[in-house]
Amino acid sequence: MKTFSILLFVLTISFAKAQSNFGKQIDDKKALAATALPAKMADKSELQAKVIGTVESVCQVKGCWMKVNLDNGETMRVMFKDYGFFVPKDITGKTVVFEGEAKKTTVPVEHLKHYAQDAGESKEEIAKITEPKEELTFIADGVIVK
To answer: Which residues make beta-bridge pairs with 53?
Structure first.
């Protein structure tokens, strides 16, 4: 019985760990704080990085993007490489580690409206989106939800 209990414990821990990884298997070692990423980018338009941060919101349609808090009160949209994986829709407030490429981009109005719709914004709020927005975005190969 003791052996069975130990085996059950190990399997439970292994399953829990496996469930927290999405996309490419990564680890959380040497991750840069999301709050430090804008300064680290400086004048670069792209940067390969491993980042740790707090989830501000998640696409409520299927978990196809998440927003992570930055240092300046802004958020960074994290999308997933080749639309190849999604994250749970209930991870707002959780700590995540993600690895991939940060990019400075201009997000077109149509994409901003689509993201607002995915986030559950009202039609009135979506209608207020009339200008493209300069943003720091991230294409993640893998994500760990802590």
So the answer is: 96
Q: Whole-structure pTM over 0.90, yes or no?
A: no
HEC-encoded secondary structure of the chain: CHHHHHHHHHHHHHHHHHHCEEECCCCCCCCEEHHHHHHHHCCCCEEEEEEEEEEEEECCCCCCEEEEECCCCCEEEEEEHHHCCCCCCCCCCCEEEEEEEEEEEEECHHHHHHHHHHCCCCHHHHHCCCCCEEEEEEEEEEEEEC
* pLDDT tens-digit readout, 46-75: 999 999 999 999 999 899 999 999 977 889
CA 128, 132, 136, 139 torsion-angle sign? positive
Angle CA(138)–CA(33)–CA(53) in degrees, nearest 5?
Answer: 65
Q: Which residues pair with 102 in a beta bridge?
A: 47, 138
Over residues 138-142, the mean pLDDT reads 97
Residue 112 confidence (pLDDT) above 60: yes
For the 2-145 domain, the top CATH level (class) is mainly beta
What does the pLDDT read at residue 144? 97
